[in-house]
Design a protein that fits this description.
The complex is a heterotrimer of chains A (318), B (302) and C (674). Chain A has 318 residues and is mainly alpha-helical. Helix content of chain A is 77%, strand content 0%. Classes of the chains: A mainly alpha (318), B mainly alpha (302), C alpha/beta (674). At the A-B interface, α1, α6, α7, α10 and α11 of A face α5, α6, α10 and α12 of B.
């Protein structure tokens, strides 16, 4: 099976999952009490039935759910995700601006986590059952247990009380002002990296220890290889599959975490967008945002699969 | 009937030994082994028990009414009267933390139990029957997992409105796939075991295989995941409450307390410190328990 | 032999930290090996043979430690070397080949890389030179098309080829000593023959000394110059191979040799057994470790551990009977032994009754679809079982032999409909099971039960023995409550356990005992036919004999029929009345066991029988060594599927599949030669 065919299959599979996901979101939003029209007219005092139905028609909400869904899907396939029911802005535009922030945040967090966690995990495994190992393990499980928003608050308090420094407010993009951008982004990225690196440390350590018990490690030692080669060239590479799997799975948590972190650090990312639009029942925006999350997830999965193939010849599509 | 000459008719069954009793003895032995080998587990279990007791006996322990506002005691730093200080409405933080444990534990417990039961059911059915059933269930699980868990919880909770019940619904939906995925894998593994083949050739029904062979042999990973999920649900409830779509005020919830505190964090850091500390301690206890259960139940380590 | 010694192990003791405390894995192991010599360390599981091998290389797990003794390699004591110093010896001076070539190669690197790795560790080589050496080594170990094969990954090679790669790695730096730890145990018998042949050839070429660690006395007889017999962590006997086999001094060695079925073993006599099972390391018996299982044991043996007694001519034995001063302790037992006939119990007399048909299989096929893609389209079929016919008569044992992947286990499962039948008929007492479903099937299955290979996965670890044996009773409502317990207890006693074992869990039993429990469960529905799927293959030799005897006894007492599936031809020969030989999903030959062994017709049967290592060092035979491995059943060769490995293959063999023809009465062969 060629790579192209494989990619094609993944695409079809991803499409199916996205359709299930989006129909769930689409239907649930319209079934649940709470209506965008009622919300928008809430401030207008007494409203006649006529006004309401007129507004419904304007927003295209008078059509049966099924028709709305098909129409939306048709447009979505062509890349048109509709306009916000509130600001009337095209949804793609609204998301486009914000997603870069979230992606930058997530990317920085992942890189930070990997840089911190993999060496720590290796070190912990090599020094198994010493005080160093125990310390690393305690920190790791602590990192997994501390809610990131509390950690963020503590960091801010700590920095402002001891250094009298708070991250600059008002978001600036990396392209216009890289220094301010990094000053703003570093802290939230660090906070997001906390639980990710905690789980990577644990996974690196445990899978290394497991691989070190494998039969082939004994073969390599029997060759007379140095311990460094045994660990880095063989054991670590064999552990990478589980580490990569973990990172793939944790990216979901990471993206979820951005909602709360963006709100603490006042970053206008996609996380805060979905939060606002669900509350306001801004259907097209919610649908589009969920779609973007889903697509991101698929993309991450694809990258993880590619990484499997790169790491392990047994997992290459033949 | 096989020739009677081959069968010993005078079987002596030890009268008072029954299968049930033997299983009970085994459970006792296992508990002893847990206490002996898993010190961390015992410590974390004790912490959990203390938190549970505190939640149950909240009215006896808490020095103040958790929702009573006191203008005179506005944002007090910890003193003897208020050991963890008071918040911006003059409420006693220690009392609110004690009562807050009720919310956290309720959400954690309900989420874990419901998602465990539903997830395990789906996973076992998916793994045992395979084919189309498996295909459908798995695609739905994939779809749930494709949305970041907190985002999905936020979506559901925000739609349904702030209420503890809705938080539980949201977190249950988010956690079902974890249980489904792990139990499906276990069922697939167990299905291939010779003891299941033996049972099938003896004519066992699917129901029997799932309940007698499947579930008892996958309890270990289920218990571990349950413990970890418990901790994660406590964090998730706090996160949703922090965003204002979880537990509605004035209920004392740890997340809600932190949310209120964030506006005053420079002036009243104790408002941030204590609820977060107890929240982290509770989650840590569940995570440690999960870890030590994993070590304890891992056949490789025995 | 003067000063030719290259490696000398002296009173070695290795201990492990476990949760039962510190235990001796080996204690007092001594032996030496000379240049170019092959010694075999032979023993059952837990005897410490592998620990001995790993101790020499200092490759023990971190919980293991050498606490006493010396390992002298050319006057250098390996036991005292630092990690860095021993590292320079490993792979260069002393190399090792392990049991399972699949798990012993790093799956992520090409075999070329893995061979280069050892060269680079010990020598300074340019990439071009390294490549040259790899090619040379691959050619040496008989891997065809080395140039392209060196870029293959381990999973792309067959088991036999992987083991050749392991040997290439081990011999890359021309070590003086090669330690081979069960090098052929994971391989099929025809491939085993190739690998043993290769080891002999390379030894002759390089003069390497080989320490062969094995449980297989056949391999020992085939390969070794001298034999070290280990039991429960210590050497019990040592000597030249012919002497050991001809006149074993230690009762353990003696019993071990007698407990293996061989081609000439009388099928009508029970096998000699060693009672009990190998002791756990943390519950070592006092005195002589073998005494609880020894038929000659006296009080002396229970109290004092015998010394390693030098019998001259490099012969040693650790038994009080070999101590001239203690001989009088044994007068009574030896006399008693002389009077009592070997085994009072009579085995099955050959039954010459009218043969009554019990099971008839016709055109049975099982094709496993290989599915690919999103909609799981079937792109190919693995023809695991491809149209086989056979019959089983009442009270008879039919043996089904073949190498891995030939479809023998699949056949067993098809008979019980544990797998869906793709095509064909299974007629049990005239009823076609292929069409049965639901309750009808449940009723039929009662008459046919299965015993599995793996004594660990065949019993649910969470159930008591009572529940395990009681399950079929419950399902078929044969007995419930107290009656169920009584019935389960009776079944346990039938298989030689006690009804007091009812309320225990599987982990409280040894492998052999678990296998007995598995048999008891299978007997619960009072079946007429037992399918024994490699039922004794996972057991130690001494325990295997116990189970074989039990099966024979049950057959005689209960009038059972067996379908005995195994890869071990000698075991099948001993237990079966007739044998079917399978190759790639087809039956290639069916005959009475004696007839098959004495006059095999099909070239595959001939090669298979001649590949079995015979536990008799005096016998030097001409082997038929097949080339290559069993082809992939997903893509079997056209025509006769054996033609790719057959030295008699003609043109017709490549195109036409030969049908099964009757040559003489009861002897059928599928081959164009006949």
């Amino acid at each position: 099976m060629s790579l192209l065919k494989y990619l094609g299959q993944r695409l079809v599979y991803g499409f199916i999952v996205l359709v299930i996901m989006i129909s769930f979101v689409f239907i649930v939003m319209r079934l649940v009490p709470g209506d965008v029209v009622a919300l928008q007219l809430a401030g207008a005092g007494a409203v006649s039935e006529e006004q309401i139905s007129q507004m419904r028609a304007e927003l295209g909400l008078d059509l049966p759910v099924w028709t709305q869904f098909v129409d939306w899907m048709k447009n979505a396939v062509t890349g048109d995700l509709g306009n916000s029911l509130w600001s009337k802005l095209p949804v793609t535009e609204m998301i486009g601006e914000r997603i870069m922030i979230t992606l930058q945040l997530a990317f920085m967090a992942i890189v930070l986590a990997i840089i911190i966690a993999i060496p720590a995990g290796i070190y912990s495994a090599m020094k198994r059952n010493t005080w160093i190992d125990n310390t690393i393990r305690v920190i790791a499980i602590g990192g997994l247990s501390i809610p990131n928003f509390w950690f963020a608050l503590l960091l801010i308090i700590f920095l402002s009380l001891t250094f009298n420094w708070i991250p600059p407010l008002g978001y600036q993009s990396f392209l216009t002002n890289p220094i301010v951008n990094l000053q703003q982004m570093f802290l939230p990225a660090l906070v997001l990296a906390l639980s990710l690196s905690a789980s990577i440390v644990r996974m690196t350590r445990s899978s290394l220890l497991e691989v070190l018990h494998a039969d082939f490690i004994r073969t390599i030692r029997a060759k007379g290889a140095k311990e460094k080669i045994v660990i880095i060239k063989h054991a670590l590479r064999n552990s990478l599959i589980s580490i990569v799997t973990l990172i793939g799975l944790q990216i979901g948590f990471l993206l979820g975490g951005t909602v709360i972190i963006e709100s603490i650090f006042s970053l206008p990312g996609i996380g805060s967008l979905i939060f606002e639009s669900v509350t306001k029942r801004d259907y097209p925006v919610v649908q589009a945002t969920v779609l973007v999350y889903g697509a991101l997830f698929m993309l991450v999965n694809l990258i993880v699969d590619m990484a499997y193939g790169w790491i392990d010849p047994r997992m290459r599509p033949s | 009937m096989y020739p009677a000459s081959q069968v010993n008719p005078d079987i002596e069954l030890k009268g008072n030994v029954s299968g049930k009793r033997i299983k009970l003895t085994k459970a006792k032995e296992e508990t002893k082994r847990f206490i002996k080998t898993q010190r961390m587990g015992v410590v974390s279990l004790s912490i959990i028990v203390i938190i549970i007791l505190a939640a149950i006996c909240a009215p006896l322990i808490a020095p103040y009414d958790p929702v009573a506002q006191d203008r005179a005691a506005f944002m007090l730093a910890p003193t003897q009267a208020h050991i963890m200080g008071t918040d911006d409405l003059g409420r006693d933080i220690f009392s609110r933390i004690i009562y807050g444990a009720r919310v956290s534990l309720l959400v954690g417990m309900a989420t874990v139990v419901i998602s465990m039961v539903l997830g395990t059911m789906l996973g076992v059915v998916s793994g045992y029957f395979g084919k189309a059933v498996d295909m459908v269930i798995q695609r739905i699980m994939d779809a749930i997992m494709a949305i970041p868990p907190l985002i999905l919880a936020l979506f559901i909770a925000a739609l349904l409105g702030p209420a503890i019940k809705n938080v539980i619904i949201a977190l249950t939906i988010v956690n079902i796939p974890h249980f489904a995925r792990i139990t499906r894998g276990e069922m697939l593994r167990i299905k291939e075991m010779n003891y299941v083949e033996a049972s099938r050739s003896a004519g066992a029904s699917a129901f029997r295989i799932i309940f007698k062979h499947g579930l008892p042999n996958m309890m270990a990973p289920i218990i571990v995941i349950a413990s970890l999920t418990f901790g994660q649900s406590i964090i998730a409830e706090a996160s949703l409450s922090f965003l204002g779509i979880g537990t509605p005020p004035p209920n004392p919830s740890w997340g809600l307390m932190l949310s209120g505190a964030s506006s005053y964090m420079e002036n009243a850091p104790w408002m941030v410190l204590f609820p977060g500390l107890i929240l982290s301690a509770a989650v840590l206890a569940f995570n440690l328990l999960g870890d030590s259960l994993r070590d304890f139940l891992d056949p490789k380590l025995n | 032999m003067v000063n030719n010694t290259i490696l000398k192990v002296d009173k070695l003791r290795t201990v492990f930290q476990t949760r039962h405390g510190v235990i001796d894995a080996i204690n007092g192991v001594s032996f030496s090996i000379s240049k170019g010599e092959t010694i075999a360390i032979v023993g059952e599981s837990g005897s410490g043979k592998s620990v001995t091998a790993l101790s020499i290389m200092k490759l023990l797990e971190s919980t293991g430690q050498i606490t006493e003794g010396k390992i002298l390699y050319n006057d250098l004591n390996l036991a005292e070397l630092s990690d860095e110093e021993i590292r320079r010896i490993r792979g260069k001076q002393i190399a090792m080949v392990f049991q399972d070539p699949l798990t012993c190669l790093d799956p992520l690197y090409t075999i070329g890389d893995q061979i280069v790795e050892v060269l680079k560790i010990h020598e300074d080589l340019s990439p071009a030179d390294a490549r040259e050496r790899v090619l040379e080594l691959l050619n040496l170990v008989g891997i065809p098309d080395a140039g392209s094969r060196m870029n293959s990954y381990p999973h792309e090679l067959s088991g036999g080829q992987r083991q050749r790669v392991m040997i290439a790695i081990a011999l890359a730096c021309r070590p003086n000593v090669l330690i081979a730890d069960e090098p052929t145990t994971a391989l099929d018998v025809t491939v085993q023959a190739q690998i043993l042949e290769l080891l002999k050839k390379l030894q002759a070429e390089f003069g390497t000394s080989i320490i062969l660690v094995t449980h297989d006395l056949g391999v020992v007889a085939e390969m070794a110059d001298r034999v070290i017999v280990v039991y429960a962590g210590t050497v019990v006997e040592q000597g030249e191979v012919r002497e050991i086999f001809a006149k074993p001094e230690h009762p353990y060695t003696d019993a071990l040799i007698k407990s293996i079925p061989r081609a000439e073993t009388d099928r009508n006599q029970p096998l000699q057994i060693i009672k009990g099972s190998v002791p756990n390391l943390h519950e070592m018996p006092s005195g002589c470790r073998f005494h609880p299982r020894c038929q000659y044991a006296t009080d002396l043996c229970k109290q004092e551990e015998p010394a390693f007694i030098d019998l001259g001519n490099e012969r040693f034995s650790r038994c009080w009977m070999n101590d001239p001063e203690k001989k009088d302790h044994f007068i009574d037992v030896l006399q008693a032994d002389a009077v009592v006939p070997a085994e009072a119990e009579a085995a099955n007399a050959p039954m010459e009754k009218e043969k009554q048909l019990l099971l008839k299989v016709e055109g049975l096929k099982k094709h496993f679809p290989i599915k690919k893609g999103l909609f799981s389209r079937t792109v190919a079929n693995v023809k695991a079982v491809d149209g086989i016919n056979f019959e089983i008569f009442k009270g008879e044992t039919l043996g089904l032999v073949g190498e891995s992947g030939c479809g023998k286990s699949t056949t067993g499962r098809l008979l019980l409909k544990l797998l869906d039948i793709s095509e064909g008929e299974v007629l049990f007492d005239g009823n076609n099971l292929a069409s049965y479903k639901g309750n009808q099937l449940k009723e039929q299955r009662k008459k046919m039960q299965i015993v599995f290979q793996d004594p660990y996965s065949s019993l649910n670890p969470r159930m008591t023995i009572e529940d395990i044996i009681g399950e079929p009773l419950e399902i078929h409502q044969i007995a419930t409550g107290r009656e169920k317990s009584i019935r389960a207890g009776q079944l346990l006693e039938m298989v030689g356990l006690s009804s007091g074992d009812l309320y225990k869990f599987p982990h409280q039993f040894s492998g052999g005992q678990r296998q007995r429990i598995g048999i008891a469960r299978a007997l619960a529905t009072e079946p007429e036919l037992l399918i024994c799927d490699e039922a004794v293959s996972a057991l130690d030799v001494s325990v295997q004999a116990q189970i074989l005897n039990l099966l024979k006894k049950l057959q005689k007492d209960l009038g059972l029929s067996y379908l005995f599936i195994s890869h071990d031809l000698n075991v099948v020969k001993y237990i079966a009345d007739r044998i079917c030989v399978m190759y790639l999903g087809k039956i290639v030959e069916v005959a009475d066991s004696e007839d098959l062994f004495n006059h095999p017709k099909h070239p595959y049967s001939r090669a298979l029988i001649s590949s079995i290592p015979v536990p008799d060092p005096t016998l030097k035979r001409d082997r038929i060594i097949l080339e290559g491995d069993v082809p992939n059943p997903a893509n079997p060769p056209s025509g006769c599927s054996f033609h790719t490995r057959c030295s008699f293959a003609k043109e017709i063999c490549k195109t036409d599949a030969p049908p099964l023809k009757e040559l003489t009465i009861g002897h059928n062969v599928a081959c164009h030669l006949f």
